Amino acid sequence: MPRILPVMVWLFLLTFHVVAAGERQIFINLIPRGYQDPRMDKDFVCGFDQGIDSERLIGEQNSMFIFELLDKTRDTTEGYKTRIYDVVTFGRDEQAEVMLDTLQCPVDESMPGLLSLFLVPPKHQCNSRTFEDAKDSQFGYYPVFVGVSVEDAIIQKFISEAQNFKPFYNGQMPKLCGSKLTLNNETAHARVETVSLLFNIKYNAGQTRNLDPTKWKICESVEQSIEAMEKSDLFEVDPEMSFEKENQTISETDGFVRAGIIRKGPLAKKAVGFVATSFPTAGGPYSPAGEDDIVTYKGPVVFNKNEENSRILIHIKEDNKTENTEYFFLEIQDSMVMKHQRRRKRSPGRGGDGKGKGGKGTGKGGKGTGQGGQNKGKQGKGTGKGGQNKGNGKGGKNTIAIVDPSFVT
C-alpha cells in the first residue's frame, strides 16, 4: 500500500450556479485517514508557537484578546470612542492606495492615544463595527502593530509584504485598518508595554518574521487566550497580588491615576493578573463617578521577570465641568471571574462569598476579603481562586477619589 502523506487538505471550494437562487458556495473539509486534530490533544495550547517566540503568545493568533484592549467604540463620551479607519487598500491591479494620504483621518492627530494597525479581509469596512465583525468571523482580522505612533516605514513594510498575505485571503490582497483610542501619553505607553509583554506582534520593535494565522493555532476568544496564558507555562497567572494603597486621591487635572500593585511568591516568570474599574452605588464618602469621568478598564496587569512591582494607569477624562469630588474603584479580579463575565451577562446577587482559600485571609488580608466579597456580590459569582486573591495582602480594592480643583465648597 502506498504511504499516505501527512498532508492536511483543509478546504475545497465548490461553486454551483443555480439559475433560480444565484451563486451558492459549499465548503467541504477533506480529512485524510488517520488525521488527528491537534486541538484535541490535552497538551495543545492555542496562540503560542515556540518557534516564533518562546516567551510570549503570538499576536495574530490572539486577535480577540488584543481587540478587547483596543475597543472602546461604545464609550459614552464621543471624544473617547475608539476610531477605526482605512489605512491601505488595494485596487484590482493590486496597486496600494494609502488612504491617509487621500482622506481626512477621522482622528485628532494632536491628541495622544493608543494606536493599532490590523489586517482585515478585502472589501470589508474599517469602521465602528469592525471589532464586532472580527468576533463574528474569528478569522481574517489580525493585529500587526500596537503603539503610540505609526511611522510611515511600517505602512510601507506592510505594502511590500502584502503579496505574502494573499494565501490567507483566498488569493486576494487584504486591507490594512487602523484604530485610535484617545488616552494621555503616559497611559497609552503603559498599555503598549502591557501588550508587548504578553504578545509578539509582527511590526512591533522592528522584528522580522512571517505572519502565521494558521486556523487551528488561533485562540478564538478572550477566554481561550487566558487559558493559553495558563497552559503555556510562560506566565504565572493570578499571582498573589495587592494594591500598594487602599485609597488614593488625585486631581482631575492630573489626567490619569497610577495605581501600584505588588505580587508575592516566585518571581522567576512573568506574571499576569487582572484588574477592573467599577463604580459605587449611592452612598459613600463622595459622589459616585461614572463612565463620563474615566476610560474604564478590564484587563491584564503584567509583572516582568524578577519584578514584584507593577502598575495600572487609568485615564481621567477632561469634561470642563465644575464638580464635587467623585470616586471609583479599581479591583483585582481572578481570571476565572474575567472569563465568566465575558461568557454571559453579570448576574447580580450570586457572588460575594469567594470560596476556597479566600476565606483564610488574615490580618489586613481579612479586610481585603471583606471588600472583595462585597464587590463580588454586586458583579456576579466569585469562586475559588478569586476568593484566594482577595484574601491576600492589603485587599483587592483600591478606592480612588477624583478632586476637581476648580470646585469651591
In short:
The chain has 409 residues and is an alpha+beta fold. The chain has helices at 63-70, 99-102, 130-137, 152-161, 185-198, 222-231, 335-343, 364-379, 385-390; strands spanning 9-18, 22-30, 57-58, 83-90, 96-98, 113-120, 142-147, 175-182, 199-200, 235-237, 240-243, 247-251, 256-264, 270-278, 287-288, 298-303, 309-315, 326-333, 397-403.
Topology, element by element:
Blueprint: E1 9-18, E2 22-30, E3 57-58, H1 63-70, E4 83-90, E5 96-98, H2 99-102, E6 113-120, H3 130-137, E7 142-147, H4 152-161, E8 175-182, H5 185-198, E9 199-200, H6 222-231, E10 235-237, E11 240-243, E12 247-251, E13 256-264, E14 270-278, E15 287-288, E16 298-303, E17 309-315, E18 326-333, H7 335-343, H8 364-379, H9 385-390, E19 397-403
Parallel strand pairs: 3-9, 10-14, 12-19, 15-18
Antiparallel strand pairs: 1-2, 4-5, 4-8, 6-7, 6-8, 11-13, 13-17, 14-16, 14-18, 18-19
Helix pairs in contact: 1-6
What does this structure look like?
21% of the residues lie in helices and 28% in strands. With 409 residues, the protein is an alpha+beta fold. The strands form five sheets. Strands 10, 12, 14, 15, 16, 18 and 19 form a seven-stranded mixed sheet that branches. The chain has a five-stranded antiparallel sheet with strand order 5-4-8-6-7, sandwiched between helices. Strand 1 (9-18) and strand 2 (22-30) form a beta hairpin. Helix 1 (63-70) crosses helix 6.
